[in-house]
Amino acid sequence: QKEVEQDPGPLSVPEGAIVSLNCTYSNSAFQYFMWYRQYSRKGPELLMYTYSSGNKEDGRFTAQVDKSSKYISLFIRDSQPSDSATYLCAISPGLIQGAQKLVFGQGTRLTINP
Amino acid sequence: KAGVTQTPRYLIKTRGQQVTLSCSPISGHRSVSWYQQTPGQGLQFLFEYFSETQRNKGNFPGRFSGRQFSNSRSEMNVSTLELGDSALYLCASSLVPGLAGQETQYFGPGTRLLVL
Fold this sequence. Notes:
The complex is a heterodimer of chains A (114) and B (116).
Chain A: E1 4-6, E2 11-14, E3 19-25, E4 32-38, E5 45-50, E6 54-58, E7 61-66, E8 71-76, E9 85-92, E10 103-104, E11 108-113
Parallel strand pairs in A: 2-11
Antiparallel strand pairs in A: 1-3, 3-8, 4-5, 4-9, 6-7, 7-8, 9-10, 9-11
Chain B: E1 5-7, E2 10-13, E3 19-24, E4 31-38, E5 42-50, E6 53-57, E7 64-68, E8 74-78, E9 87-94, E10 106-107, E11 111-115
Parallel strand pairs in B: 2-11
Antiparallel strand pairs in B: 1-3, 3-8, 4-5, 4-9, 5-6, 7-8, 9-10, 9-11
């Protein structure tokens, strides 16, 4: 079993729709949770970062963490064609096991259709 | 502020050769991590360097190695290349590892390596 599971998609939705992307993880020691966006032939770009359960909002993006269920989500409101990219969840074990050792999900390929 | 830079951007090598990739972190960032990205395995952690010391290592064979210089720039080396080493190699830097909110890693554009 992978430490982080993410449905690779592809996911295709119409412009303006609400998009929900999800990951589950197995190790309760994970402390930091991130979402990255990666456009084709580019490096991943950090979208959201959180280290606690609950919601964190930034513009059209909302990150949600449920540590009790080991489940993280990213919601995109009013989706735009420019949001078309691969979205990767990333989880860090934190200080003890190495905060820099990010464990990534497989990535979900998202297409927003005009 | 300039982002993470990686050189070269593209590289073609043949089996058995070795390759060295370079990464310059964001100014002031002291931690550099390397990742391998392939369609089958996704993004996998290779190793992390801080203050010229390797602090963490992923599950890769000893053919993969790296180092960090006093100016925080880093290089990774792959010896005896295999076809399966074809991948996008990503470097990420962060400000100060271990402090909440400052572990955030910023990625470079990657070096695309093709092994023939």
